[in-house]
Amino acid sequence: MRNEHTLRAKIRTLADYAATGIAVFSTVLVVAPLVAIFIYLVYKGAVSLNWDFFTKVPKPVGEAGGGMANAIAGSAILLGLGSLIGIPIGIGGGVFLAEFGRGTRLANAVRFTADVLNGVPSIVMGIAIYSLVVVPQGHFSAFSGGVVLGVMMIPTVCRTTEEMLLMVPNSVREAALALGVPNWRSVVAITVRTASPGIITGCMLAFARVAGETAPLIFTAFGNGDWSARLNEPIAALPLQIYVYALSPYDEWHRLAWAGALVLIILIVLAVSLVRYVTSRGVLKGAS
Amino acid sequence: MPDPSPHDGDPQAEVAPHPVSAIRSFLLTRGNSALADRGFHWLMVLCALSIFGIVVLIAAELVLRSRLAWGQFGLDFFYKAYIDTYTGLPMYWDPVNAHFSALPFLYGTIVSSFLALLLAVPLAIGVAVFLTEMCPGALRGPLAFITELLAAIPSVIYGMWAVFVLVPLLREHVNPWFIKLLGWTGFFADDNPTGLGFVSAGIILAIMILPIISSLTREVMTAVPHSQREAVLALGATRWEMIRTGVLRNARIGIVGAIILGLGRALGETMAVAMVIGNSPEIHRSLLANGSTMSSVIANEFAEASSDLHLSALMELGMALFIVTIIVNAFARLLIWAVTRGTPSSAH
């Protein structure tokens, strides 16, 4: 009887150890690919990162040298356009959810739709915008690429804005109203302003997410081997160029693709770290 | 403190009812800015409604543009192949003869997504358990940050890494073992020397969906009240028994939600899959064979579609993907809400 008891206790302790071991092992296994990807990126990309990469356009096949300056500029234009579309609408939606619609059925529906929209694959967004913008226009364009990225930013911006606004204490709103400030000004100049570090963080998060989007750009922005700053012409984009070059058979292009990937990942890691830093410091420390 | 990735399965959907105080409603009714206030209000409503508008527009465009293929093939599109009269072999996707069937892409999407879930789910739960219940405090922050970074890496970079590192690795060192040990099952046939295929796609997808499953699992696990853990421990349970009966069992609906959300991601993931799955519209029993998914075929063929019917068939694939991901996502959100409702999302 007693023996049985100790045996059971032993088995239970062993199971406990085993579970701990498995959990630790899976964590290591998950961290490993990230570390592997980073090391490989730096190892492959760093050698090709030079001044030319940031200042020159790609050379024709077979010639050494060249860079991805046009793709970087193109990405900047696309992301700027996307932010111009996505951020105001997203913030507006968030303001509605937090300031006007609290608890209403409409707000719940909007919130749910935003979450669902977030899960729609980017490629589906791409073909929808293709038929909405590219088909009527008759050609691929930077504008359509910007629209796709903007639309994809909306749900993220909207939901973070709402969350940040909910953290602003009600007394602040009431104080503003008591001073005779119209409601709209109190929202814009007091509530949104108080929550602005958090809202900016949300925008950056959305920005970082769409910065690496490739799939919807294939048939909207399309890519361009040369400089282009016109919104109604195809334009190069960094992730798109990486995709094309990575699948090409030329070593020179692989080299550029690695360097491009390194640049992209550094940008994204910077954005995510900054977000992390801001949020861990307590966004609204002074206000709440 | 807000979760740094609130867009991923935020549970704060059920915002506590927030009655406007008497003072505030009094203050709101006076003053002479009623017009400006109303204008501002409606502007914000417009922004919010535009989110509906986007979903409706996407749906409308997809329906409109896929009408041609729908009219031509109807429901056959999703389950029928046609037999080539010369070779006697089933053909699925044949732009030259204008015959299209979604079957190989449905198959590819399902197989690659389930492979990914098979690999990612145990690992993700392991990570979540480690981070919430076992991890020393000093490690928790950095490890959570690393899993977040994993989610932020663009698909195309995963794809590129897979093409240059993962696929050669599998081809040279892993696949031979599969073929030797499990070749007799027919699932690991030795007829594809490229290393591209379902296994490669499944592995890279698993790496990509791991962060979302693990961070949401973590969230629902932290939503389990501490009293549950303490009660189980007080009965003399070991730590693992506490986690199993006190935490995982209480959080299981939310964990299922997290897994389904991961599935939603895997179904729609495009670039990395398109780069490693081999892109052939065929159905093979072997997991090492080339395949194609709904999203990867759109990415590959859309810009160069040869005919209106081809384009329309691709649109119909997109519509199917849209409907499936919407259902999957909505279902997952509901499950997660059911668990985390009432607890603040930041109860770390």
Explain this structure.
The complex is a heterodimer of chains A (288) and B (348). Chain A is mainly α. Chain A is 74% helix and 0% strand. Chain A has 11 helices and no strands. In chain A, helix 1 packs across helix 11, helix 5 packs across helix 6 and helix 6 runs antiparallel to helix 9. Chain B is mostly helical. Chain B folds into 2 domains: 38 residues; 275 residues, MetI-like (MetI-like fold, Orthogonal Bundle), CATH 1.10.3720. Helix content of chain B is 69%, strand content 2%. Chain B has 13 helices and 4 strands. Chain B is flat. The chains are: A mainly alpha (288), B mainly alpha (348). Chains A and B meet through helix 1, helix 3, helix 4, helix 5 and helix 6 of A and helix 1, helix 2, helix 5, helix 6 and helix 7 of B.
Topology at a glance:
The complex is a heterodimer of chains A (288) and B (348).
Chain A (H helix, E strand, L loop, with lengths): L1 H44 L5 H5 L13 H32 L4 H15 L2 H16 L4 H25 L3 H9 L4 H12 L1 H16 L26 H9 L4 H30 L8
Chain B lengths: L21 H8 L4 H32 L1 H7 L2 H4 L2 E2 L6 E2 L1 E2 L4 E2 L2 H32 L2 H16 L2 H28 L15 H26 L2 H9 L4 H30 L2 H6 L17 H8 L6 H33 L8
Antiparallel strand pairs in B: 1-2, 3-4
Helix pairs in contact in B: 2-13, 3-13, 5-8, 5-10, 6-8, 8-10, 9-10, 10-13, 12-13
The average pLDDT of chain A is 87
> How large is the count of helical segments of chain A?
11
Spatial order of the strands forming the largest sheet of chain B: 1-2
| Rg over C-alpha atoms of chain A, rounded to the nearest angstrom | 25 Å
CATH arch. level architecture of the largest domain in chain B: Orthogonal Bundle
Distance between the termini of chain A: 60 Å
Indicate the low-confidence ranges of chain A by residue numbers: 283-288
